[in-house]
């Protein structure tokens, strides 16, 4: 028997990321090849944006996706999020050359208070929320705080692009396939302070750290490359990453919903106090997922270098949180 369709709300649906994301959701890449979906698409009320959204929807129609059980366009989050089982909050202003993601804080924070309140009011009580719009961790924190009747654990931020970038760099360095790399993680904020950590990573049971051997590569090449990759793409493309961001959003939701079979991945989630990260801080952690729930990988040793890096990214997140406190008062 066919499964009941699940409702997937996507904001910023006519934007760059939306254009890569929606087709893949409708194709079953996110929730499974046997899971029908209903797309509930939100754009700003602006005539041009709504017209562009209609155009994207015409193209989605033209794909005749067998799993697409319905699709609606919205300019109001209160209707877009109605009964949503999943919400991908992409819509926000992207940064341009020379900006840091936190420069977007003022411009974008307002969006996430409004949308958090709307989710609180009308979404499924089990809604799984992924914030992609930057600065993703703090926006996710704002949405979570604006939705007090929903479980805090339902709000997450996207660190998966950083995780995937780190995987790809390690694959290139070791000459091994991406799929063979396990136990990698990225701690902290989706910003250049993030700490991509391969101390525990393994390829076919062998330590990645030992096989690379060279701590200087970690410090001087790997961490800056992964941390500044978003900026490097903006520099090269003149636009921020879009297809790879959409791909990471698909990966994040797929693994949250369908499980990682014991494998590690990275999710930005509200801390439960693990590793000394204050409760509620939206922080990238190593997790495994099963039955629609994530669990932080516990008891990993944190050496002095790692603690310094974790402190640095936590400090930035604390500053960002303090910077938006007035919006949550
Ligand atoms: P874009 O400008 O192409 O598209 C954004 C879309 O959002 C636009 O169509 C805009 O009209 C819409 N929008 C703006 N405010 C909205 C609102 N309140 N409600 C609904 N829609 C709204 O930008 P993009 O390239 O698609 O990027 C979107 C966001 O994702 C940016 O903030 C970008 O920095 C971020 N991003 C995050 C990651 C990550 O890893 N977390 C990766 C890439 C991009
Ligand atoms: C990325 O990491 O590619 C995105 O967050 C876009 C950006 O501003 O870097």
From TrEMBL:
Catalytic residues (positions): 190
Record GO terms (molecular function): L-malate dehydrogenase (NAD+) activity
SUPFAM superfamilies attached to this UniProt entry: LDH C-terminal domain-like (SSF56327), NAD(P)-binding Rossmann-fold domains (SSF51735)
Enzyme Commission code: 1.1.1.37
Annotated ranges, domain Lactate/malate dehydrogenase C-terminal: 160-324
InterPro entries: L-lactate/malate_DH (IPR001557), Lactate/malate_DH_C (IPR022383), Lactate/malate_DH_N (IPR001236), Lactate_DH/Glyco_Ohase_4_C (IPR015955), Malate_DH_type2 (IPR010945), NAD(P)-bd_dom_sf (IPR036291)
Residues involved in NAD(+) binding: 12-18, 108, 115, 132-134
Presence of keyword rRNA-binding: no
Domain Lactate/malate dehydrogenase N-terminal: 7-155
Residues binding substrate, per UniProt: 95, 101, 134, 165
Alphabetical list of Pfam families matching this protein: Ldh_1_C, Ldh_1_N
Chain coiled-coil ranges: none
Enzymatic reactions: (S)-malate + NAD(+) = oxaloacetate + NADH + H(+)
Keywords from the named record: NAD, Oxidoreductase, Tricarboxylic acid cycle
Transmembrane segment boundaries: none
Source species, domain of life: Bacteria
Described function: Catalyzes the reversible oxidation of malate to oxaloacetate.
Family as reported in the entry's similarity comment: Belongs to the LDH/MDH superfamily. MDH type 2 family.
Xref: NCBIfam families: MalateDH-SF1, PRK05442.1
Protein name: Malate dehydrogenase
Protein species of origin: Massilia aquatica
Lineage: Bacteria, Pseudomonadati, Pseudomonadota, Betaproteobacteria, Burkholderiales
